[in-house]
Structures are given as structure tokens and as C-alpha cells.
Design brief:
5-stranded antiparallel β-sheet; globular; 6-stranded mixed β-sheet; alpha+beta; Immunoglobulin-like; 706 residues
Length: 706
């Protein structure tokens, strides 16, 4: 060990004489300086500080890995290039001492790169809103990710230098990192090759775009990253021992070779064990996702996969969930137990014996009872309740439904947890089917993939709009989960959640706070609440105008600020009561685009109901553009609509558009009132596909003349 220490000190002293070794630290410092200055220079933050850090960390880390790997090849091969190695072989020094001494110098350099990154992260994160425990967890995550990867890359550099004694050894480092980059590019939820191969990276990349998830931080990836990097560390040690064996093998002592081989075999056992555990965890998530795709695959008469169903295909159901009382327990991770009392209203015209409910199939029903005789049966997500005596029209039925099970669900090749309950984070969206929904509903829709992705299917959440509002009373039992939580209904003084909503329930828990703008609750990470409040205030004026114009509620009751991947899952089910915004929604607000988005929240079926609905949508957008004073370059709605629709000739334009344009020639107020009538008429239709613009305008003219 004294010789190894001597080699380490001598090599470190020689390395410090190279003035260019400070250049990587300067480059990294300039990169981080630009990132921090750009973020802190913003007057209002629309993204969390940690999110900005992690968006840049993974790319800056690759630069550090490249520099550390190239240095490792240089350290291992420089004596060979200078022919000093021919002198070394005459020294009374073991291969292990010689190679390990140089390897420790390279690791010291890599540790300095990691330490500089941790220092920047630690100081910058003190300026954020996270607590000390969260601060330490983030430092630990970056440390194991970066240092583990550097440890592995340096060992690989020594192995390449031992195997290849020319410049090609240097090329192997960027080639290895290129493979890791391609694997990470394959980790965006639509992998073209087996996504299990994504585990073969020197850092944990089993996430989509960024390991940071808004109010949940890095909690979803932290434990798995520790497992992954432990396996990487063990593999790095094995590779180092292999490099020592391959370095001048003819001068290695027999006992030295035997000791190294023994250590390699001993280390392979925990490496395989830890790697196997990490593989099993991801494989279980991927298999569940693949089961979801197959379970919900839409099939035609001949068994072929269909495209997604349209909103007009949603069947009307004569029952309504009038009241739902839930007592929710979370006894362990991803496990929930619920006692529910339901009041179901029958709005049909003839007596009926069967009622259908929807509850995720992973939740097993433990009690299904009522004051009347009934029987319950399950079929996938469906619960069929058969009443021995027929239910009369306008009747109310009280039902006790208790259930429990594992609610954990996955999307995007098993990389995105769609529903989870953990000690430090909770997400139970309505689409997870965690509470009883009235009717036979499709929680998930799966269709044949339109590209060559590995799983061969695409999934999206089902369209779960309700026909009637429900009065909810929800109690989260027990205090084991000591994190802030929020529901789409407000919290009462007694700690329960009470309120009526036609949207439904979505439960979130994490590092969140609430703010209010008018009657709208905003729930999100503390660092983005000011930006979310500012954006909501911009929309507030338009919501107020539309409510005064159309006479219907427009402003949402609650807005969740979520990570983009989670926000995107809610788009299929638009609601006026509940919005989910991402940082892009609150940070990139264009006044000329706002009218389009406002109307899309009211009428979300662009193209699915034909040209008549499209004309109505555009007419509403035109009114909002005019109200906001946004210049379009056109003086009349008809001309603007023709340009927006890119109709080649006047005859191709829908006839209803010209007929509606005549009202604008009379006056803007007449046009506004005609559009209002059309919208309310459209709203009143049970089947939106029945909307006919010309017939509705004829009815409007008849009503106006009376």
C-alpha cells in the first residue's frame, strides 16, 4: 500500500502541473452560471428551481462523464505512449499497485467534478422552498447519479486503455456515452426497442425527460436510482480488476491473478443480485403497463384494433350518482381501503333491475349491501348490481360498497406512475378509477400503435364526463401520511372534503400549497404559485366576460399545477370545473392564443362533429378576439373564417358561415346574441352530433321575431 500511495502522490503531482485540467471546471462553472443567472433573473417564476436544475443537470453531467473518461484513458495509457512503461516493468511494483494508483488519481479528478456540482446545487437549492430533508435527498441523488457514473466510466477508460493501445481507446469513451444517450432517448415512453435495455446506462435514466416531477420532486426515482447506481458501482470495481488483469499480464504474479479473479467472482454475486432487483422492479411496471394495453384494447367485429372512440360515442345512462361518501384508508404503500356509501338516482322511464358501476379491477369489493335485496358481480372494471325488486322511475337507492387493493398503475412503458400512494407523495386521478363511477365506463382506451414502438399499442385515459353533479363527502382516515393533500373539492374545517362537482375527484399530495383568485382555487408547488396566480388573473377577465355574455359558469373551481406528463393525461376529459395546467400553460401565455384555448374548454370536439360545430367554435373565438382588441387583419367573420379554414373557393366554405356572417353586418351585438343562442342550443343537445347550424339559426330568427 505504501508503493500505491507513492504512485498516487507522484501521479497527482504530475497531473496538477497540467494547466489545461482546470478548463473542464471553468466550462462547467460557466454552464451552471448561465443556467442560474437565467432563472434568477426572471421576475416571476413559472417553473420550480429544482426543475430548472434537473433539466440541465443530465446534459451537463454527460460533459463531465466525457471529460472524466478521456482523462482515464490518458492516465492509463500515457506511460505507454511515452515509452516510460518499458522502464516501469523493471520496477519492483505490482500491476495492482501501479494501475490502482493511477486509477485513484483519475477518480480524485472525477470526485472534484462531482463536488463542484454538489456545491453549486447545494447553495442554489438553499434559495428554494424545500426543507432540509428534501435538500439532503436531492444532494444524495445527484451524488450517486454523477459519482456512480464517473466511477464506472473511469474504470471503463482503464479497461479500454489496457485492451487497445492506440488512439481508438479514446474514441471508445464518446462511443460508450453515445450508446447511453441513445438508451436515454429510448426512455420517453414510446421505445422502439425493448425498453428493458434502457437499464444498461451508467446512470439511472428510467424517467421521462427529467427525474423531477413538480410537487413530487425526485421521490419517484430516488430509491430506484440508489439500486441502479449500487449495481453500477459494483460493476465498475469488477471492470477495474479486469483492467488490472489485462495490463501486462505476463508480469503479474500468480497470487495476484488469483486474488483478482477471486474478488471478481465475489463481487459478481452482489452485482447480479442488486441488478436483478432493479430489473425486477422495472419489469413488473412494464408488464403491468403491457397488461393494461392488452386488457383495454378496442376490438372490431373481426378482432382488429380500432382507433380511439369519440366523445359522441359515450352512451347515455339513466342513473346518476347523487351522493358519495368515502372513508379512505392508506394502510401501506400503494394500498388503499375504502368504505363508501352511495346514493344512486334513477332517472329512467321504466322499471329496471340492474345498475352498473365502474371501479378499477385491482380493487377487490369486500362488501356490497343495501337495505333491499341485491346481488353483485364483477367483470374487469365493471360492477353489476342486480336488485331482486325492480327500481321504479325517480327512485333513490342507498348502497354500501367497501373495497381495497393495490392502486398502483403505470403508463409510458412503465416509466410514468399513473396512480400511486406513498408516504411522501400521492396521486389518484379520477381516471385511475379509485372510487365508484356510475355506469359502464372505459377507464383506459388502447389502440394499435401507428408507429413501430415495442409495445405495439397506444393508450390514453377514457372519456369520463358526467351527466349530473355529485355531492361528495370524503374523509382521509389516519395521519400516517404527513404531507399536504388536496382534492378537487374544498376542505372543510373538520378536515374532511365536502362539495358538489360534476367533474369528480382527483386526489394529490406532496409539496403543495393553495392560493385563490376569485372563486378559483390554485393548487401547486409553492415556487410556481405566484406565476400560476398571475396567469389565472389574465384568464379571469375573459372568464368574467364569457359568463356575462353566455350566462353559464366558465371560471374553474380548481386548477392543479402538475408536471407536463401528468397534465397531458387529463386533456381527454375537458371540464369547466377542473383544469390541470403545466408549467408551459402558465409560463407561455399568448393573448392571441387565449381565445382559442377558452373556446376549446367549452367545445372540445374540433372536427369530430362536422363543419357546423367548427363554425360555432370559430364564431365564439371571433367574438373573443374582438373583445380583446386582437388584430386579425380581417374586418368580417366570414372572411376570417375562410382564411382560418384555408378554403380554396367561396363555395367550399360551409353555408352556415355565410348565414351567420349576415348578423355581423347588422351589428356586433346582434352577432354576439346569435352566437350565444347557438352555443346554448348546442349545450342543450344530448347528442352533439345532431347540431345543425342553419336549422338553429332559423329557430333563432323565429324566436327573435316573436
Amino acid at each position: 500500500m505504501s508503493k500505491q500511495g507513492l504512485i498516487y502522490r507522484n501521479e497527482l503531482r504530475l497531473l496538477n502541473r497540467n494547466p489545461f485540467l482546470i478548463l473542464p471546471f471553468v466550462v462547467l462553472l460557466l454552464c451552471w452560471g448561465y443556467v442560474i443567472f437565467s432563472y434568477e433573473n426572471q421576475s416571476v417564476h413559472y417553473e420550480e428551481l429544482a426543475a430548472e436544475f434537473y433539466n440541465n443537470f443530465q446534459w451537463i453531467m454527460l460533459i463531465g462523464l466525457l471529460l472524466a473518461g478521456l482523462l482515464a484513458v490518458y492516465m492509463a495509457g500515457k506511460d505507454h505512449e511515452s515509452e516510460f512503461e518499458h522502464v516501469v516493468v523493471t520496477y519492483k511494483v505490482k500491476n495492482t499497485e501501479w494501475v490502482a494508483g493511477k486509477w485513484l488519481v483519475a477518480q480524485t479528478y472525477g470526485l472534484c467534478l462531482t463536488s463542484m456540482t454538489l456545491l453549486i446545487q447545494g447553495v442554489w437549492f438553499l434559495n428554494g422552498s424545500m426543507g432540509m430533508e428534501e435538500w439532503i435527498r436531492n444532494l444524495a441523488y445527484v451524488c450517486v447519479q454523477m459519482e456512480g457514473a464517473i466511477f464506472f466510466i473511469i474504470s471503463c477508460g482503464f479497461l479500454f486503455a489496457a485492451l487497445i493501445r492506440n488512439m481508438i481507446a479514446y474514441i471508445c469513451i464518446p462511443a460508450l456515452l453515445g450508446i447511453a444517450f441513445l438508451a436515454q432517448a429510448n426512455s420517453y415512453g414510446f421505445a422502439l426497442v425493448n425498453p428493458r435495455f434502457n437499464l444498461l446506462t451508467p446512470y439511472d435514466s428510467m424517467y421521462i425527460a427529467s427525474p423531477y416531477d413538480s410537487i413530487w420532486g425526485i421521490h419517484g426515482v430516488f430509491d430506484e436510482a440508489l439500486l441502479h447506481q449500487l449495481a453500477v458501482f459494483l460493476l465498475g470495481v469488477i471492470i477495474l480488476f479486469a483492467a488490472i488483469l489485462l495490463f501486462r499480464p505476463h508480469r503479474s504474479l500468480r497470487i495476484e491473478k488469483r486474488m483478482l479473479m477471486t474478488l471478481i467472482i465475489i463481487l459478481m454475486l452482489p452485482a447480479i443480485l442488486v441488478g436483478g432487483i432493479r430489473y425486477e422492479h422495472y419489469d413488473r411496471a412494464l408488464e403491468q403497463f403491457m397488461d393494461t394495453g392488452q386488457r383495454y384494447m378496442s376490438k372490431g367485429a373481426n378482432g382488429e384494433s380500432l382507433f380511439y372512440t369519440m366523445p359522441e360515442d359515450r352512451p347515455k345512462y339513466p342513473f346518476a350518482m347523487e351522493r358519495t361518501q368515502l372513508n379512505v384508508y392508506f394502510p401501506s404503500e400503494n394500498w388503499m381501503k375504502v368504505d363508501s356509501q352511495l346514493t344512486i338516482a334513477y332517472n329512467g322511464d321504466v322499471p329496471i333491475n340492474d345498475v352498473s358501476l365502474t371501479l378499477h379491477h385491482q380493487l377487490a369489493v369486500t362488501d356490497c349491501s343495501s337495505h333491499v335485496q341485491l346481488s353483485c358481480s364483477r367483470d374487469n372494471d365493471g360492477i353489476r348490481i342486480h336488485f331482486h325488486d325492480a327500481i321504479e322511475p325517480d327512485a333513490r337507492i342507498d348502497l354500501n360498497l367497501d373495497y381495497e387493493g393495490n392502486i398502483g398503475q403505470f403508463r409510458f412503458d412503465g416509466l410514468l406512475q399513473h396512480a400511486f400512494v406513498e408516504s411522501d407523495r400521492i396521486y389518484l386521478p379520477k381516471e385511475a378509477g379509485w372510487y365508484p363511477l356510475i355506469g359502464e365506463r372505459h377507464l383506459v382506451e388502447s389502440v394499435r400503435a401507428r408507429d413501430d414502438r415495442y409495445v405495439q399499442f397506444e393508450v390514453r385515459n377514457g372519456e369520463l364526463a358526467e351527466d349530473y353533479p355529485t355531492e361528495f363527502d370524503v374523509t382521509i382516515m389516519g395521519q400516517e401520511i404527513g404531507i399536504p393533500m388536496a382534492l378537487t373539492i374544498p376542505r372543510a374545517k373538520d378536515g374532511s372534503y365536502k362539495g358538489a362537482t360534476q367533474y369528480g375527484l382527483s386526489l394529490i399530495g406532496g409539496n403543495l400549497e393553495e392560493a385563490s383568485v376569485g372563486q378559483t382555487r390554485i393548487v401547486g408547488h409553492p415556487e410556481v404559485l405566484d406565476g400560476a396566480r398571475k396567469t389565472t388573473e389574465l384568464y379571469q377577465e375573459s372568464w368574467s366576460y364569457m359568463e356575462g355574455w353566455l350566462g353559464v359558469p366558465i371560471a374553474p373551481k380548481v386548477i392543479y399545477i402538475l408536471d407536463d406528463d401528468y397534465q397531458d393525461r387529463t386533456r381527454v376529459m375537458p371540464s369547466r370545473e377542473f383544469y390541470a395546467w403545466s408549467v408551459y400553460d402558465i409560463g407561455y401565455v399568448d393573448a392571441s392564443f387565449m381565445p382559442y384555448r377558452l373556446v376549446a374548454n367549452l367545445i372540445n370536439e374540433i372536427g369530430s362533429y362536422g363543419d357546423d360545430v367548427s363554425v360555432l367554435q370559430r364564431a365564439m373565438i371571433w367574438v373573443l378576439l374582438d373583445h380583446s382588441g386582437i388584430e386579425t387583419g380581417y374586418g368580417q367573420f366570414g372572411d376570417w373564417y375562410a382564411a382560418e379554414g384555408r378554403y380554396a373557393t367561396h363555395e367550399q366554405k360551409p353555408k352556415g358561415a355565410d348565414k351567420l356572417s349576415h348578423y355581423e353586418e347588422v351589428g356586433k351585438e346582434q352577432f354576439r346574441q346569435a352566437v350565444k343562442y347557438l352555443f346554448l342550443h348546442y349545450e342543450g343537445l344530448e347528442d352533439k352530433a345532431e347540431f345543425k347550424l342553419e336549422a338553429a339559426l332559423t329557430a333563432y330568427e323565429g324566436a327573435a321575431s316573436q
